[in-house]
Amino acid sequence: MKKQILNTLFLAAGFIVAPLNGYKSHLAVINCPVADLIGEPFNHNVIKRYMNLPLYAEGACCPRVHQALYNEVVKIVDETECEYCVEIANTYFVSEKNKNPQTRYWTLKKNCTMLDDEIKKYIPTPISYKKPETKTTKPTIVLTQPWHDNMSGNCFSVGTRFIYCPRYSDNEIITVILYDFIKQKDITCGIHRSECRVEDKTNSQNNLRTEMIALLRSWISGHCSTVVPYVWGGCSYTERYAGSFRQKYDKQTDCCIYVYPKTKRSLKIGFDCSGAILRAAQCVGIPYFCKNSYTASTQLKSINAYRDVEIGDIIWIQGHVIVIADLERNRIIEARGYPHGYGKLQEMPISQAFEGIETIQQLVERLNTKKGLKRLDKKGTVVATIPHYKILKLY
Q: For the segment 282-312, what is each residue's pLDDT rounded down to a tens digit?
């Protein structure tokens, strides 16, 4: 078990398996609503292991490190019998030992379709951290709410991007064209304007932070007994989970995992702390690309004065990131894990997250006096002392 943990951490730090010598790379597109991406290929029981990836596991890192969405373009750089090694450009991570942006993951071959000239017509211009100012060459919309397509039977995640037809859209319905990879033909569908956002790089940047916070709040809101769950490596939202989570022992992995008993899906839909920020920021057009908390801590500008703090800026503690949601009411948004009693995307007063901190301004003042923080769980019990933390500028 110790060796398994070390190997997983080693890969998460950026040391992903190199492509085979002489392998000819290919462009492909994700053909399913959500595809799990892992850090290294599985060498046995591949399909079963993908189907049984947990929401979160104690005692070992979950192999899932990211999730890709339908229509996202990837570059295939290696393969095994059942899996592809892919590069994806809309996010990256760095590590202490490798400061170069890392973009490689492994996923099932069945999640990818080779990108030919016919399919390219239906694929939006990819988002890329290398060219954040790239304008879309085709009219594009991005889902801001989960959308169920009756024709294909698929439910697509927030953040999914489609080519749309302004000519055939009206004040209520936006007409989009998507490619059915099973039937190998294009489909024309209508999406209500309340479920999507038209991408326009000429829009003013002034209100994007407000839009991002409003979007995160819309994902949090819903029936009181349903949530968007915390998912290790998660970066998707197609449905809400019902009931409360519980912990159980998993014999196959020899560790404790968390489950929502009322949800039986094999694919786990939800966010981790970094995934929620990444997906919400890109939905509204903010050039944010940090895959994990370490990358954010090294790539984003630190803030030391309260007057410079804006909504959307990030509180960083080791292994976790939190969004500042309201400076007047001193509220934060985070996807927080199960051991502290939450296991969901949520909004709360900052006083419920840190002992003795009532306002964002107090947090900044304590930062400048180099005093640590005490982390609270759902019961209000101190569960960790945090000696070092940062406040980071979103963009």
A: 999 999 999 999 999 999 999 999 999 999 9
In the chain, the N- to C-terminal Cα span, in Å, equals 40
Q: In whole angstroms, how large is the CA radius of gyration of the chain?
A: 21
Sheet holding 104-108, edge to edge: 64-69, 34-38, 104-108, 83-88, 73-79, 26-30, 112-114
Q: What is the mean pLDDT of the segment spanning 380-387? A: 97
- pLDDT level of residue 9 (50, 70, 90 thresholds): very low
What SS3 state is found at 274?
helix
Domain boundaries, the chain: 2-118, 300-395
Under DSSP, is residue 264 helix (H, G, I), strand (E, B) or coil?
Answer: coil
- What 3 state SS string does 193-258 have? HHHEEECCCCCCCCCHHHHHHHHHHHHHCCCCCEECEECCCCECCCCCEECCCEEEEECCCCEEEE
Residue 367, token pair as written in the block:
């930062």
pTM over 0.85: yes
Query: 129: how many CB neighbours lie within 10 A of its CB?
Result: 17
